[in-house]
Recover the amino acids of this structure.
């Protein structure tokens, strides 16, 4: 009898074992290690329009950029709505690491050379490591090489130097929507009148809405804190679209900023949307791998 | 008492035949061989479990884990084609067509056919592919190579990149299994 009991028990045990062996979901037997998913493609390019976006170049990637603005649309039919004039910035950005990008550029506007360094301090992520936002630190320097307006005055080299510092803080809220803030400081060694501040504090807000996988609507506005700019200077507002086609990104937009570097589009906008002083323009980005 | 021993032995035997194998380092490589561009990407952290007693086999892989030669390729793969934020994983759940053809306790090379459901980009399709199981010194490894059509999985290739992405992608799958030690 005792033997029978044990036998029954064993039989029962072996049956449960058989059932266990018929697991429906085999993979559930594996303990899943949680990985960190870093958010990618918050924007199609490293620029929203004029402002630097949350995106950096990946290590070993070279981005050749052509930024171009026609004249003011307010020029009317005589200027063919601005198409007669052009301002251009040619530039190259390079990813030293996935977090560190450097770039050089030359603008026709005031014949200015500029260089920047951009470091991604925080990366938005989910999973094992959770981070709600992406944060980048940005610093640029520009040298104006336009001949001085008054050659008889003592013109120091340092008169032509400009600096910009930015914190770029943002989040990709959904597949389609990204928003960022860009608190900025522009330093100008020399300003035209005493009414203008050498240090200009501003805050940019920029975002994009994806209209399709390869098309997005971008906009940015830069609010300059009061009492820093002279009469006749206006805040920058730009609106445009990004079209991505594999290795290229085409950015088409309208903006009241003529300059395409920070010191210019933050602190030196003479164009005003209300007056139709708006440029049509485009940025073309072509990425090469030169690792 | 004799009966007891026999039953005990039978149970033990069952433990052995109910052997399960797993790997967390399964390697999946895909090749897109288009006229204008060759693209390949590899993921070396696919999970797979193989049940030797039933011939059931399962795979799961994180789409974001595929590594490309160029960072932009990876971005576009995730954002435009696989939409990995919506469909983070690809899965396969299937069975060896003739499980008794593979003797996991005996060294050898076994060519079989595996049939099951392949799920990716939100689409599940039945696939039947040839696979090879190799048992050598008690170590089980598996290998399979097959083609999939991107349109079967609702992956659209826009006209501008027609020359850069093949409509048919070759998959290369390799796993070296370890014995699962958890009590079954």
């Amino acid at each position: 009898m005792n033997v029978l009991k044990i036998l029954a028990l064993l039989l029962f045990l072996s049956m449960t074992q058989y059932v266990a062996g018929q697991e429906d979901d085999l993979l559930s037997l594996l303990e899943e290690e949680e990985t960190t998913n870093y958010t990618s493609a918050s924007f199609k390019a490293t620029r929203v329009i004029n402002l630097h976006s949350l995106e950096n170049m990946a290590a070993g990637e070279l981005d050749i950029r052509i930024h171009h603005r026609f004249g003011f649309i307010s020029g009317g039919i005589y200027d063919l709505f601005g198409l007669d004039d052009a301002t251009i910035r040619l530039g190259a950005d390079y990813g030293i690491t996935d977090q560190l990008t450097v770039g050089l550029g030359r603008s026709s506007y005031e014949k200015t050379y500029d260089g920047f360094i951009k470091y991604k301090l925080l990366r938005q992520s989910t999973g094992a490591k959770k981070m709600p936002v992406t944060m980048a630190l940005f610093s640029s320097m520009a040298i104006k090489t336009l001949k001085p307006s008054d050659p008889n005055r003592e013109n120091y080299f340092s008169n032509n130097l400009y600096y910009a510092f930015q914190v770029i803080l943002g989040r990709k809220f959904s597949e389609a929507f990204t928003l960022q803030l860009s608190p900025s400081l522009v330093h100008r060694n020399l300003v035209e009148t005493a009414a203008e501040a050498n240090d200009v504090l501003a805050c940019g807000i920029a975002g994009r809405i994806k209209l399709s996988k390869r098309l997005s609507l971008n906009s940015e506005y830069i609010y300059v804190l009061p009492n820093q700019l002279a009469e006749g200077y206006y805040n920058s507002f730009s609106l445009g679209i990004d079209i991505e086609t594999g290795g290229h990104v085409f950015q088409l937009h309208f903006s009241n900023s003529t300059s395409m570097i920070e010191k210019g589009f933050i602190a030196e906008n003479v164009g005003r949307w209300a007056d139709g002083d708006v440029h049509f323009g485009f940025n073309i980005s072509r990425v090469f791998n030169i690792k | 008492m004799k009966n007891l021993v026999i039953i005990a032995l039978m149970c033990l035997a069952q433990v052995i035949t109910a052997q399960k194998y797993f790997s967390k380092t399964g390697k999946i490589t895909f090749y897109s061989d288009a006229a204008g561009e060759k693209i390949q990407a590899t993921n070396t952290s696919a999970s797979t479990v193989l049940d030797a007693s039933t011939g059931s086999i399962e795979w799961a892989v994180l789409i974001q884990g595929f590594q490309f030669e160029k960072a932009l390729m990876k971005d576009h793969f995730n954002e435009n084609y696989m939409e990995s934020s919506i469909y983070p994983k690809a899965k396969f759940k299937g069975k060896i067509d003739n499980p008794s053809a593979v003797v996991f306790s005996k060294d050898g090379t076994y060519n079989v056919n595996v049939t099951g459901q392949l799920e990716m980009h939100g689409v599940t399709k039945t696939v039947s592919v040839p696979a090879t199981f190799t048992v050598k010194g008690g170590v089980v490894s598996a290998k399979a190579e097959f083609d999939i059509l991107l349109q079967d999985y609702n992956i659209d290739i826009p006209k501008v990149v027609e020359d850069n992405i093949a409509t048919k992608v070759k998959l290369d799958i390799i796993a070296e299994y370890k014995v699962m030690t958890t009590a079954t």
